[in-house]
């Protein structure tokens, strides 16, 4: 009888330890190691694997992309500059009967004073052959002001150059006023380069003491242009 009472007492003591809940798990508490959850006001959030995601505003790659995008849409601001190289075919209008088609090359510099206004200058070297197989040379050195219109990656500058030109034919040399209105169209390939075409008109008056010798030459130039922006 004492043995039965002892076994019953031990059974009552052990039973709670092995008791189970209705879903089959033991009712004894289980120790779980968990980090303190991040507050909702925190700037970072962790996923189920513990990796922390950084907001876009703190992502260096995202910031660099945003900066490049801003630069793309803010080209040609005040202070921007470019060098320009032009190769042209020259078609003489006056004297039409004495000169045949020639050519010219131009090297210039422009700086944006405002968003669309440019100031600078250029120097050209041009020639045209005469019907007598002689050559007429002219070297305009011009101050140039321009205004540029833009539409996406296409740019349309209009400019006016005013200065002087050295003119030479055989043993005769003349230095006088030179005027050159010009229009162009460019495709902005990237932030450093743009490519396009241009057309303009050289107006080369020659004034003498005897007005009957006064004459104005008109030479139309048309060709290809490249600009380097910096």
Would you mind describing this structure in some detail?
With 230 residues, the chain is mainly beta. The chain contains two helices and ten strands, in the order αββαββββββββ. The strands form two sheets. Strands 3-4-5-6-7-8-9-10 form an eight-stranded antiparallel barrel. A two-stranded antiparallel ribbon has the order 1-2. A hairpin with an 8-residue loop joins strand 9 (193-206) and strand 10. The longest helix has 17 residues, at 2-18. Mean pLDDT is 80; it is low at 27-54 and 69-73.
Give a short synopsis of this structure.
By secondary structure, the chain is mainly beta. Helices cover 13% and strands 53% of the residues. The strands form 2 sheets. It has an 8-stranded antiparallel β-barrel with strand order 3-4-5-6-7-8-9-10. A two-stranded antiparallel ribbon has the order 1-2.
The string of secondary-structure elements, in order, is HEEHEEEEEEEE
Strand content: over 45%
The rounded Rg comes to 41 Å
The shape is elongated
Number of strands: 10
What is the terminal separation in angstroms? 107 Å
Mean pLDDT: 80
Unreliable spans: 27-54, 69-73
Biggest β-sheet: count, sense, barrel?
8 strands, antiparallel, barrel
What spatial order of strands do you see in the largest sheet? 3-4-5-6-7-8-9-10
Give the helix level as a range of percent. 10-25%
Task: Please give the count of helices.
Answer: 2
> So what's the oligomer here?
single chain
Structural class: mainly beta
Please outline the helices and strands:
Layout: H1 2-18, E1 45-46, E2 52-53, H2 60-72, E3 81-94, E4 102-112, E5 117-129, E6 135-151, E7 154-169, E8 172-188, E9 193-206, E10 215-229
Antiparallel strand pairs: 1-2, 3-4, 3-10, 4-5, 5-6, 6-7, 7-8, 8-9, 9-10
């Amino acid at each position: 009888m004492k043995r039965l009472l002892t076994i019953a007492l031990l059974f009552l003591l052990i039973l709670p330890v092995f008791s189970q809940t209705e879903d089959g798990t033991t009712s004894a508490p289980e120790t779980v190691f968990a980090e303190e959850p991040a507050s909702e006001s925190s700037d970072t959030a962790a996923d189920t694997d513990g990796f922390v995601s950084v907001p876009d505003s703190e992502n260096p790659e995202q910031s660099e992309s945003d900066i490049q995008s801003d630069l793309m849409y803010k080209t040609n601001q005040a202070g921007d500059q470019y060098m320009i190289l032009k190769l042209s075919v020259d078609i003489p209008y006056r004297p039409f009967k004495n000169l045949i088609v020639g050519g010219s090359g131009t090297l210039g510099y422009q700086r944006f004073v405002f968003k669309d206004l440019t100031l600078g200058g250029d120097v050209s070297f041009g020639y045209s052959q005469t019907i007598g197989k002689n050559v007429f040379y002219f070297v305009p050195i011009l101050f140039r002001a321009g205004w540029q219109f833009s539409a996406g990656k296409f740019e349309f500058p209009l400019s006016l150059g005013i200065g002087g030109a050295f003119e030479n034919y055989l043993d005769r040399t003349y230095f006088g006023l030179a005027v050159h209105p010009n229009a162009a169209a460019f495709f902005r390939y990237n932030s450093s380069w743009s490519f396009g075409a241009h057309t303009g008109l050289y107006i080369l008056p020659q004034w003498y003491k005897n007005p009957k010798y006064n004459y104005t030459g008109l030479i139309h130039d048309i060709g290809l242009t490249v600009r380097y922006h910096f």
